[in-house]
Amino acid sequence: MLFVEMASSPDHHILTLVKRLGVVRPADFEARGIPRARIYRLVAKGLLKRRARGVYVASDHPYTAEHALAQVAKRVPNGVVCLLTALRFHELTTQLPPEVWIALPEKARRPRLDDPRLRVTRFSGAALTAGIETHRIEGVDVRIYSASKTVADCFKYRNKIGIDVAVEALKDFTHRHRSGAGDLARFARICRVSRVMRPYLDAVS
C-alpha cells in the first residue's frame, strides 16, 4: 500500500522529502516505498542531483562549506569527524585537509567512498565515545568531536598530524575558549596526554 501511494504521488512530494532530509541515500527512498527508477527520472528531469555514489540532493540544495561532512555522515553514520577536519570545523587550524578525517571503532569495517576521500583513524573506549557533539549541516546530523576533545586528540595522534599542528590548535583554543581549561584537562586525561601537553600549556598560559 505504501509503495502504491508513493508511486502515485506527485514529484513534489518526493522533492519535499529530499529537502527535509538534506542529503539522501537510496535506502532513504526505499524505506518510504519509492522505487529507484522514479529517482532516476527525477535526476533526468534535473529536479534531483547525484552528488556522489549513492548520494542525492535537491537541485536547489543550499551547499555549505561543510558539505563533505554531511555526505560522509550520511554514508558513515557510525563515524565521528576528528583531528584535522574537526580542527578546521572549529576554526582551530590553518590546515586545509584534502580528506575528511573520521574516527571509527577498532573493529568497524572500513567504508568505501569514491568522494569525498576519507582518512580513517581507529579510536577505542572513552577516547571514542567522549566529547561527541552533533551539528546539523544541510539537514544531516553530523557527529564531530568538540573543540577541546579534538585538541587532546591531536596531541595523542601528533605523530600522524605533526606536533606543530597540535601546538597551533592548542594556542588557538586557549585564546578562543578561555573558560575551556577544565574540559581540555579532562579530555587530556581520557586521551592519556596530560604529561605531553603540560609544557605546551605552560608556554601558552
Descriptive account of the structure:
This protein has 205 residues and is α+β, with helices and mostly antiparallel strands. It folds into 2 domains: 2-58; 67-204, Beta Polymerase, domain 2 (2-Layer Sandwich). The protein has 12 helices and 7 strands. It has helices at residues 2-7, 11-21, 26-30, 36-44, 67-75, 83-89, 125-129, 147-156, 158-161, 163-176, 181-190, 194-204, and strands at 48-52, 55-58, 80-81, 100-105, 118-123, 132-137, 140-145. The chain has a 3-stranded mixed beta sheet. A two-stranded antiparallel ribbon has the order 1-2. It has a two-stranded antiparallel sheet with strand order 6-7. Helix 6 packs antiparallel against helix 8 and helix 8 crosses helix 11. The longest helix is centred in the last third of the chain and has 14 residues, at 163-176. The chain is elongated, with a radius of gyration of 20 Å.
Backbone CA Rg: 20 Å
Named CATH topology of the largest domain? Beta Polymerase, domain 2
Distance between the termini: 65 Å
**The level-1 CATH class of the largest domain:** Alpha Beta
Q: State the helix count.
A: 12
* Main sheet makeup: 3 strands, mixed
Percent of residues in β-strands = 15-25%
Which residues form runs of ≥5 with pLDDT under 50?
1-8
In helices, the fraction of residues equals: 40-55%
Give the spatial strand order of the biggest sheet.
Answer: 3-4-5
General shape = elongated
**Mind telling me which CATH architecture of the largest domain this is?**
2-Layer Sandwich
What order do the helices and strands follow? Answer: HHHHEEHEHEEHEEHHHHH
Structural class: alpha+beta
Mean pLDDT: 85
Count of distinct strands: 7
What is the domain total for the residues? 2
